[in-house]
Amino acid sequence: MVAEGKKAPDIKLPDSEGVTFKLSELKGQPIVVYFYPKDDTPGCTNEAKDFTRLMPKFKARKTVVIGISPNSSASHAKFRDKYDL
Predict the structure, then answer these.
(1) SS3 per residue for 43-57
(2) For 28-81, how does the pLDDT look when each residue is reduced to its tens digit (9 = 90+)?
(3) Separation of alpha carbons 54 and 72, rounded Å
């Protein structure tokens, strides 16, 4: 776990399109990173929907929101599209 105020590790993972995302590409921007155990489960779906609902507030503060789970890119894309995330 990263302590508050400390640098986060440079996470490098495929996004929902299979393109490698690097956390360092967002250096200097406010970022919310949330981790969830699995796409399309009730709790994770509610959490993702809440972040989507709050996106106008995050965007107003120029804050990027990133959700990370161990699922595949294809699973993420299906989850995103199913719930319009």
Answers:
(1) HHHHHHHHHHHCHHH
(2) 999 999 999 999 999 999 999 999 999 999 999 999 999 999 999 999 999 999
(3) 25
Residue with tokens 């590409």: 25
- What are 82's two structure tokens? 């199913």
> Which residues participate in catalysis according to the annotation?
44
Write out the H or E segment, with its range, that includes residue 68: strand 64-68
pTM value > 0.70: yes
Name all contacts of 21-29 with Cβ < 8 Å and 24+ positions apart: 21/66, 23/66, 26/64, 29/62, 29/63, 29/64
CA-based R_g, the chain, Å: 13
Distance CA 65, CA 48 (A): 10
What is each CA distance from 61 to 2, 19, 41, 79, in whole angstroms?
A: 23, 26, 29, 26
Amino acid identity, position 49: K
